[in-house]
Amino acid sequence: MSGKVKSDLYKSAGVDIDLATSLLDQVKKDFAATRRPEMLSPIGGFGGLFQIDLTKYRNPVLVSSIDGVGTKLMVAMMMEKFDTVGHDIVNHCINDISVQGAEPVYFMDYIGIGKLRSPLYEQVLSGIAAACRKANCAVLGGETAEMPGMYGNDFDLVGVITGIVEKDRLITGDRVAPGHVAIGIASNGLHTNGFSLARKILFTQCGYTVHTVLPELGESVGEALLKPHTCYWPALSRALAEELPIDGISHITGGGLYDNVPRILPADVSVVFDAEVLPVPPIFRVLVEKGNVDPMEAYRVFNMGIGMVWLVPPRAVDRALELIRAQGFVADVCGEVVPGHREVRIR
What is the bridge-based pairing of β-strands 331-339 and 181-186? Predict the structure, then answer.
């Protein structure tokens, strides 16, 4: 049977194979720009091939993570703007593995969608490619599943990332002790967490739309919400190259400071944070005030302006701040490690 014979039965059922192929062809050049020498095959095979350079590593450990963008996708659909969520999924995943000292080496994506459409598809993939290229992380492959009847007009976006770190350079938090200093690196907004509450406050309770411009924000609600998740790898990679003693790192995602920092603490220490050191982005003040959100809940649901925390010995503080700020990030000392029971207190 000839492969050229076409039928519209599958298309009439809601799945357009030819459209998927056509749209993917438009972004292949973006994916090609993320290629690393370790890749052994182009995108499109049944499995992506990536050869670890054993001349570069003595005892390599692979670090992997998987995550999604969550209901931020609903805001993207309201705005009809989809490139930023591509950045979101890559940057979130990079931050998650970098806290253990891993260099991001390859990324794979999954898009589940009810009805494949343009420009959504190309914008998402182009955003993914741009974020990977910036971090020198290869796009090794991906999957797009068009499933009419499953997602309706919605879609889901998931990313899987793999990084590599020398076993003796893994950052585990085991060395964190009383006297260590907490350095906070600023976020630019919600990143990819807290959107269910944010949407309830802004769209349901306040009746705003994504196009509502609030004086407190200086921009529209949608623009404030869609700011891409910040990638902190440029600062961390410099610090790791210098072998700066960073003994613990926490990516502040869902659960905020209260839930994420304890994940890296030994059982006999706690961290006391000063909430007013780093600027709180205006979107958080709007959410807290308009939604009457209790401060403790705000610091569990949202990052409240701190996207990543480094725990370092006092002797490393000045150099750490210098390296972070040199990469364009706002950062400052925001807390201290004290004897305790793996808890966080915010004053």
Answer: antiparallel
Do the beta carbons of residue 298 and residue 304 sit within 8 Å? Answer: yes
Residue-wise pLDDT tens digits, 186-220: 999 999 999 999 999 999 999 999 999 999 999 99
Alpha carbon distance 168, 179 (integer Å) = 23
Residue 27: which of 44, 40, 12, 15 has the closest Cα?
44
- Greatest Cα pair distance in the chain: 73
Higher confidence at residue 187 or residue 33?
Answer: 187
pTM score, two decimals?
0.93
**Residue 171: closest CA among 311, 332, 54, 321:** 311
| Contact criterion met (CB below 8 Å) for 140 and 128 | no
CA nearest 199: which of 219, 217, 218, 225?
225
Distance CA 22, CA 164 (A): 34
